[in-house]
Amino acid sequence: MSHPKPASDEGAPLGRRAVLGLLGLGAVGVVTGSSVQNGLSQMLASIQMRDPTGLTSQIPLGDTWRYYSVTGAVEPRTRADYSLRISGLVDQPASYSFADLEGLPQTEFDDTFQCVTGWSVPDVPWRGVRVADLLEAAAPTDDAVGVRYKSFDGTYTVNMTLEQARADDVLVVLAMYDAPVTHDHGGPARIYSGSMYGYKSTKWLSEIEVTANNAPGYWEDRGYPLDGFIEDE
Ligand SMILES: Nc1nc2c(c(=O)[nH]1)N[C@H]1C(S)=C(S)[C@@H](COP(=O)(O)O)O[C@H]1N2
Ligand SMILES: [Mo]
């Protein structure tokens, strides 16, 4: 494995005692099977885990999701209330409702979700609108260099170069597993970038701002690589 080591953890506080308790339950999961593991995964979601010790990544959950939020609880938003702004250095700023996004051409593929801390979930079915299509409609100006993805959690940001954002595997995700993106997974709409580590996939997406630079976002400010491409092992 050649994952870069994160400088920090990926969520809101979870104490050492809780971590050790989960490790005990994780051992039960190994013996009794996947329903216990799914339950554990849900429990981790509900406590918005933080992993200052690195111990939680040792819990033997297998290829299951961990749900991350650097802000703790996020106020859920319905699809009816949802909107996505395309702003910044563009000739055609726009605001898309969820229905607007559903009306655009959809791209679907199965691809692995991989967190930089080492866990991954294989063959996830994704469906959504290519960021490239939204950028083309917005018409970035000549001085545009990057995009900044913002979240309605009010804190999380990530960016890519304009060129990276135009890749075929970068989506505004409207469905995972042929179902609406759940709140825990960053619904109504999140980013997925197939070639990049999970931290590039902003959850609770609210805005794509086209910018004059490629400035570091939340995790890049805390030590994750600016270009988040997944390294071969
Ligand atoms: N808004 C927001 N988006 C986020 C994060 C976050 O904390 N807040 N964590 C990132 C990281 S590090 C990972 S690995 C994935 C986790 O996605 P999941 O919670 O659907 O498993 O979300 C990414 N997007
Ligand atoms: Mo991550």
What would you say this structure looks like, in words?
This protein is an alpha+beta fold. It folds into two domains: 1-73, no CATH class; 83-222, Oxidoreductase, molybdopterin-binding domain (Sulfite Oxidase, Chain A, domain 2). 20% of the residues lie in helices and 26% in strands. The strands form two sheets. The protein has a five-stranded mixed sheet with strand order 2-1-10-5-6. Helix 1 (16-32) packs antiparallel against helix 2. The radius of gyration is 18 Å and the shape is globular. Residues 1-8, 13-38 and 45-50 have low confidence and may be disordered. Bound molecules: the ligand Nc1nc2c(c(=O)[nH]1)N[C@H]1C(S)=C(S)[C@@H](COP(=O)(O)O)O[C@H]1N2 and molybdenum atom (MO). Residues 10, 68, 115-117, 198-199 line the site of molybdenum atom. Molybdenum atom (MO) binds next to loops. This is Oxidoreductase molybdopterin-binding domain-containing protein.
Low-confidence stretches: 1-8, 13-38, 45-50
Please tell me how large the radius of gyration is: 18 Å
Tally of DSSP β-strands = 10
Span from first to last CA?
Answer: 5 Å
**Biggest sheet descriptor:** 5 strands, mixed
Shape: globular
CATH topology of the largest domain: Sulfite Oxidase, Chain A, domain 2
CATH architecture of the largest domain: Alpha-Beta Complex
- SS-derived structural category: alpha+beta
Q: How large is the share of residues in beta strands?
A: 25-35%
Tell me the quaternary state. single chain
Strand order of the largest sheet: 2-1-10-5-6
What's the level 1 CATH class of the largest domain? Alpha Beta
Output mean pLDDT: 84
* Percent of residues in helices: 10-25%
- Secondary-structure element sequence? HHEEHEEHEEHEEEE
Number of discrete helical segments? 5
Question: CATH superfamily name of the largest domain?
Answer: Oxidoreductase, molybdopterin-binding domain
